Amino acid sequence: MNLNCGSIGSCNSGEKCCRNLIDPMIAICIAEDQICCGGSVCGSTESCSNGQCVPQGTNLCGQITCASNEQCCLNRCIGKDQTCCDGLGCNSSENCCGIGGIGSTYSYTCGRCSGGMIPDQYLGTCNGIYYDTSKFKCCNNTIYNPQTQDCCNSTLYNPQTHACCNNTVVNGQGSACCGLIPYNPQTQACCVYDAGSNSALASRVVYNKDSAVCCMEGLQPIDKGCR
Fold first, then answer.
1. What share of the chain is helix, strand, coil (3-state, %, to 5)?
2. Do 126 and 175 fall into the same domain?
3. Residues 113, 117, 120, 123: is their CA dihedral positive or negative?
4. Do 62 and 36 sit in the same domain of this protein?
5. Are both 126 and 173 inside the same structural domain?
6. Each residue of 133-180: pLDDT tens digit?
7. Can you tell me the distance from the alpha carbon of 40 to that of 57, in angstroms, rounded to the nearest whole number?
8. Model pTM greater than 0.85?
């Protein structure tokens, strides 16, 4: 059962809440196997894309394409059996939003599954959507989970496969950058050296601390050292 389904109050067993993306108080109860799309129900030959019902096969979601068993939820793909909750996919046993006091006024406290109010100190807005700043972050008007994604100059990326160097998303992992090359500062270092009079820019290279040393003329074996 989904509690606090807008002005309806709650949905019956076997139903889920379908909220309007602009005003979450405008909501309807739909069957669990139906697709909620921005407050409307898509037909059997349609899928949801960015809050609109489109013909099946057009499963675009922002700049990504969702699988056939997924639906679009504010630029994020979630399961068709989930409820879109301000960019998050809530399961049927979870509540999307609650309504409660924020300071001296009342407002929508949406932005996470399981319901309840977001404490004042953790209440943030991202593109007009409320979210819990203790659990999520905002990147270029998109709410994301910092445990699985990161933001680089308004671009979301996967830190398990990419890094942010000089405000640019690049392949590789590392908490530090040597130009546009990420590296692990615990075992590696960045060597910046003079490439000679024929080079207008200094050269940069990542090396292992236990096998090389950075000299003015470039890398040298650690047992040889610099001249």
1. 5, 45, 50
2. no
3. positive
4. yes
5. no
6. 888 889 998 888 888 889 999 999 998 889 999 999 999 888 899 989
7. 19
8. no
